[in-house]
Design a protein that fits this description.
23% of the residues lie in helices and 20% in strands. The chain has 422 residues and is α/β, with parallel strands linked by helices. The strands form four sheets. Strands 1, 2, 3, 4, 5, 6, 7, 18, 19 and 20 form a ten-stranded mixed sheet that branches. Helix 1 packs across helix 7. The two termini are 29 Å apart. The site of flavin-adenine dinucleotide has 33 residues, from helix 1 and helix 7.
Length: 422
């Protein structure tokens, strides 16, 4: 594996790169693919600090796979919703019984290696801030491996690291175990116990199904779940994405995908329903030491409360940029943060699926390179335009788009063929 480890960046020097990608899950790798395709190279390739025509991908994980490294083992390739190929390289023949936690990290690792994306890990980004008021100035990306000074940032940090736990009265008094699906390992851990599963999403119903084989369960949700008989056709999928897109365009927090798609009756879920496992109850009103107080006033005894209550976008490191508006979300224009052409969020809101992440990676790269090219129109290459460039020992080789080619990068082209998902 050629994946470089965390770089040794001098403490007093920021590494210059045109584009810094934060996160190397499906979204970050898609961005990496398109950056390479359009001729950019890793900034730290060969140990040289370089500026224009370069990118950096930083990922907090110790190895490839993004969030797929952490899914529970019973989430098999047959039971995931459907994983789109990373751009330009199909998934290998896969045994549907294989756990996704084995298959997908291996596929991602192979992809990174063959495309020579140069992902740097483990590198956790702590903050992103503007260096000054210049709207085309650099963004400083501070990480535990040093600081990177980017002309644009593509944020692809997913949601897995930000599990959402709602707050309920009495929560701290519970004598049993509380866990979020992000911590779930296997149903056998609950053998013989009573498990209350909270949440109306796909994870909730899949885990109810498997836990119910070894434990008794109660299912509670805030709203009556909406079930669909059939898989989504492409048009219905487009409409669902458009609804989330409209929300983020208005600066509202993105909806969860299931709130716009509903739950699909898969055969194992129908069988679970026949066993009475999917009898949904309204949300409990409080948590007590031995269980939960149900809406009808009865006490449901419980050993475990499993919070299948979703995730939020992992964006804490972007706080210094003050992106959130009155709607509680970030106003978006496609993948770009509205009014901030240097920052794109991918795998966020409408693009938080594997197909969405693929498309968003491409959109972000194309728009950023167009933006940098437009900015460069009035400047000489490498003229130290922003404060962060001053005194930097990196050598700018020309404008951001100097190395850009309309054709696929020859190396990537040989590896992955000409097809580029649009
Ligand atoms: C249980 C579950 C099942 C799912 N099944 C499907 C499915 O079948 N099909 C589908 O299309 N979608 C599915 N999804 C949605 C899925 O998460 C996305 O489609 C996609 O995998 C997310 O990719 P991503 O690149 O946006 O994020 P991730 O895969 O989460 O990658 C983000 C990366 O960013 C890194 N990172 C985070 N913060 C930082 C930081 N501060 N600094 C540096 N790196 C950081 C993380 O370590 C991680 O490597 C599922 C989600 C869940 C929770």
């Amino acid at each position: 594996m050629t994946t470089p480890s965390a770089p040794a960046v001098p403490a007093d020097t920021a590494v210059l790169a045109d584009v810094v990608v934060i996160g190397a899950g499906q979204a970050g790798l898609s961005a990496g693919y398109h950056l390479r395709r359009l001729g950019l190279v890793p900034a730290l390739d060969g140990g040289e600090h370089e500026g224009a025509g370069t990118y950096v991908i930083l990922d907090a994980e110790p190895g490839p796979g993004g969030a797929w490294r952490h899914r529970w083992r019973s989430l098999r390739m047959a039971t995931v919703n459907g994983i789109y190929d990373l751009p330009g390289m199909p998934q290998p023949e896969i045994d549907p019984c294989e756990p996704s936690v084995d298959v997908l990290p291996a596929y991602f690792g192979d992809y990174e290696q063959r495309l020579e994306l140069g992902v740097l890990r483990p590198v956790r980004v702590a903050s992103v801030r503007r260096v000054d008021d210049d709207p085309s100035g650099r963004l400083l990306v501070a990480s535990d491996a040093g600081t990177f000074a980017a002309r644009a940032v593509i944020n692809a940090t997913g949601t897995w690291t930000k599990p959402f736990w709602p707050v309920y009265p009495g929560q701290a008094t519970f004598r049993g175990r509380q866990l979020h699906v992000a911590d779930y390992v296997r149903a056998e851990d609950f053998a013989g116990q009573h498990v209350v599963v909270v949440g109306g999403g796909i994870s909730a119903v899949q885990l109810l199904e498997e836990i119910s084989h070894v434990a008794t369960t109660t299912w509670v949700t805030r709203r009556e779940p909406v079930w669909r008989d059939e898989d989504f056709d492409p048009e219905a999928g487009r409409q669902a994405v458009a609804r989330v897109e409209e929300r983020v365009r208005q600066g509202l927090a993105p909806l969860s995908v299931v709130s716009v798609t509903g739950l699909i009756w898969r055969p194992e879920l129908r069988a679970a329903a026949e066993r009475g496992v999917l009898d949904r109850h309204p949300m409990f009103t409080r948590i007590e030491p031995d269980g939960v107080r149900m809406a009808d006033g009865s006490l449901q005894r419980a050993d475990v409360i499993l919070w299948a209550t979703g995730f939020r976008a992992a964006l804490d490191h972007l706080r210094p940029l003050h992106l959130r508006g009155h709607g509680g979300g970030i106003t978006m224009d496609g993948t770009q943060v509205a009014g901030e052409p240097r920052l794109h969020l991918i795998g966020y809101g409408p693009s938080s699926s594997t197909v969405g992440a693929n498309r968003a990676g491409r959109e972000a790269v194309v728009r950023i390179l167009d933006h940098l090219s437009a900015v460069d129109g009035g400047h000489h290459a490498g003229d130290g335009r922003s404060a962060s460039d001053g005194g930097h020992r990196a050598t700018d080789r020309g404008p951001a788009t100097a190395g850009r080619r309309d054709q696929a990068d020859p190396r990537a082209g040989r590896l992955v063929g000409a097809a580029v998902e649009r």
